Amino acid sequence: MNPFDDDFVTPPTRHTNPFADDDPVVTSSNPLHPSSHAAAAASRSTFQHEPLTPSDIDNDPTAWQDLGDLPYRRVIIASNILWGRHHSTTNNNTPKDEEERFGLSWYPKPYVDTLKAHQSSFSSSNINNNNNHDLASLLSTTTTTFCTACPNGGPIATVTSPLDAGGSAGFGSRTTIRIMSNSGLLLSSIVFPKDLYIISHKTGKKMGLHRSPGDILTIGWTTRCILIVVLRDSLTLCYDMGGRAVLPPFHALKCSGSGDQQGCELLEATVFEGGVAVLGTDRNAAVVELLDEHDDPTYVDGADVTSWRVVPSNNDPSEMRTVFAPPPHYALVTPLPTAMFAKSKHFTYGCIAVLPREYAPSRRPELFLATSDGSVVVSEMQPSTSPNNGLVDVDCRGKIGGSGPKAPIVSMAFAPNGRFLACFTANSVLTVVSTTFESIVLEFDTSSGSSSPPRSMGWCGEDSVVMHMKHLGVLMVGPYGDWLRFAYNDDEGEIYLVPEIDCCRVVTSSSVEILQRVPPGTADLLRIGSIEAGALLLDASDAFDSGSSNADEAARAITQQEGLLEEAIRECIAAAEGEFDVKVQKRMLRAASYGLHFACRDEHSPSRMTGRPSPEAVAFVRAARKLRTLNAIRTPSTGFAMTSAQYDSVSAKGVIARLMAAGHAALASAISEYLKLGRQVRDYAKAMKATAFVNSCSAVSQSSKTLSIMTDSQIAEEAIRIIRGEEKGGGKLFEKDKLPPASQPSSGMYASVALAAHRAGRRGVADLLIMLEQSPVDKVHALLSIGSYADAAAVAARARDPDLIFTAMLAYDKSLSDNDEGKNTYFSGVVNKFPMEAVNMLTAYHSRIAAMGGDVKPMVNILLRRQRHAEAGTNIGKRAIALVRSDSSIMAENELEQQKVETLKEASNIFGLAGKDCLFQKTCTDEYLDLISDQEQLRRQYGTIDVAPPSSSVTATIASILKYAAADPRSSHKLFADADRIAKKYKVSEKRLWYVKVQAFSESKQWAVLRNLADSRAKSPIGMKPFALAAIKGRQGEAEIMHYVGRMQGQSDGEDRYELFCEAGMWRKAVDEAVKLGDRRRIAHVKSVCNSIEIQALCDKYV
């Protein structure tokens, strides 16, 4: 029974003897290295219960070791590795004089020379180049080398830095982060520190940072091939396999009250499959989740309110996306208030581990923190909404670390399935518990062999825990306390463990190995005396290959039992998938094929009855394709150490993505075609292959005569052939004849290759390829990246896509300087070079901004460049009229008037540019400027703002002057003269002037002046009705009203007099006037609205 299963209830067993001197030490090597011994592949005698000698290893290349009842093997992926070498030794661009390599470590040459001189001056034995072992040992005392590998057989990243955070003397101010394949080929390199910056949250600008190589705290890979570098002040850097930064630098843990350039000092940081978790010296923690465009966008919406996002800076127009589309990479940072909890419980934190969100009940990562009193605190990612800030003390004190005194946990590691946690305590006891801490699965004491904690600890699949112990090699502990010790010489170089889902990679200074549990199917097939169906079929196949006559009988014996042959075929196929040796793979597949031959001849076979391939045949073809793919990516030129289980975990599309990220575009394209993946995947792989071809043409054009004479047209034609999957030597590709719709490449292929050509300095190739792009979105983004902003806008206009048009204009704006010259260049370029749709959109955009109170100058600038003077001047005039007073003081009012005058003068000048077309608008504007001047003169003359309020019209100004006469009777004659002057100057008609006077005098209670105005002429130009109405509304007496009504004696004034009497409530006179008019309806109207009984009786008399 496997104790790591859920139903395990057996009490734990403690073993303390793996370090005894008389215990056998496993020294096996390369169990699957190809050998010329054909009999070895046929032999199933693979279990070795005794220590293997070198001769045994050579004679038995498939040697396994038993960990209890579980067989394990040691597979050498690559040996005698020269780390950091290039694909071509003649094209090594790394300066040899700058750094010296010792295994996985690189040191500056001056630093190495200094240590040599220092050692020779104090030691009787000089250190020379021939004694690299002593020199490497000396260098390792002052430096440390970080080494990490991408999960699922991915690349390896290393960096060497001094132990002192301030930098060791002579080491230098820079180091190099190298990303290499498992065979040692250099994929990319990152100079550290170089161009480090952080974006200020207040200003949004970049601020430079100064760091040294000694500031590196840890490095690690996520499952999505993102390399994370964490510095001691929590500054986090993220790179892809090509060494390109995918996110701007950011502080994972910010100190309260500190600026943007300062983060919290870290105690520990650990990279997990989905990001990184950090623990500060102030006992606070944070978890950074690295997400991308393939994640659910709503996942971020459910994050804690204290969380914040880190997104890439979109300086490249090709990376511009819509507002709703997530960026290609982004980080979600969640700070956790763990310090307060630790202070309340009076303990500190040690190591940390993260349970990935796939295995957490909340579907978000959970942070496990080991405490100084031997317990573990679990923190959720929702501290603001969870009780106790989401922190729970599991209280495992006394349960972990054996029966001795309590000891804190110094190292933790989760199993790949997330169900178990391996804990190593300070008293050298390994304890495996469930993630709920309800059951203890294993306790293993290592104190007799080593009192120090392991240098690294992880899981080898789901069945064992591996630890690298100083001077003891690698120790593997199994489910029941069984153990294996793999001897590695620590003196020869560093040893790094890389836990995988089904194995453990061991990276040394000269090799890469895999420690793996032998797949159960393989173990069943090759076990001595096995009677499994697969083993019997394998024996029959081997007998057939050797020409034995018993082969047919052995095969027919399997077919006699129903279903046994199909089971045997499946076992052979499964065993073949788990092998690394091509010979063993072929042997297993031959056995499966041999069984399929009998299955097809069976009349009762389901495949013959349905007429379709049997499930076993389909599985055979699928396994053959998988093995060919795995063998192709395991070659030294590719260097992927991927197993069958890892292939299934990543999927075929994931393998293609990793190959392209590692720079193996040609292989990715071939595999995608071979596996018949989706069209988009195959087309994307072809595009990356074409990109690699264009880059290679540009990179070696100086050294290769064949490529140097290739013109841009020839390079473009070859790239198009690669994209279309055509054979070389076809006809011209720049003809008008198009491919059939089914053969058209996916959208964006030509654009992506064109971008690569542009970056490589092949502008002509880029232009030719962009012409063939059919997707407007990809074509626009490619043109923007190249710098053809007007062409991009034209493409967007033809596509009738306003978003793309705006994107083109925005990119053009960002490409220019942020000063007056840049703005003028922008508006001139848009108006003169961009399509009319873009110009109209820009005009509408700035018009909207101006209408909302924004700056009106951009809109006017555009209109003037478009020769639309009337519209430009009108908008300026409207803006001047819309100015309102912001302060009641005279100074503020004067400033406002001055601003209005200047704005109106500008509008007048704009109208003047159009000549006769805007003569009316210019005349109106100039007259209004004169009115403003007259109003200012009146205010200065009479010393008050009431005589001529600002922003008043001609009519309002005349009325204000007349009204002010009531407040200053002594100046009334002068005021009346000013009013007449203003009316004459601005050509106010006589009737309009009299109406204004009547209204002004009545509102200001100047009744005598009103009567004088009415009596000033025998016949008023506006009649007497306005005077009478003013008296009625002013509640004057009947005599005053009749003074005006009495003068209305014309034949056409009868109806007006009736209405005036009704308005004044003179009902008797209204009845008399109605009688004179002979209108009974008016008499009835008086009766209906009058409350006097006498008047109603009078109305009845006439009705």
UniProtKB/TrEMBL annotation:
In this protein, which residues make up the domain named Vps16 C-terminal?
881-1099
Q: Name one GO cellular component term.
A: vesicle tethering complex
Return the SUPFAM superfamilies for the record: WD40 repeat-like (SSF50978)
Q: Where is this region: Disordered?
A: 1-60
- Source organism's superkingdom? Eukaryota
Comp. bias (Low complexity): 28-43
Residue span, Vps16 N-terminal domain: 409-598
Q: What is stated as this protein's family in its record? A: Belongs to the VPS16 family.
Q: Write the protein's name.
A: Vacuolar protein sorting-associated protein 16 homolog
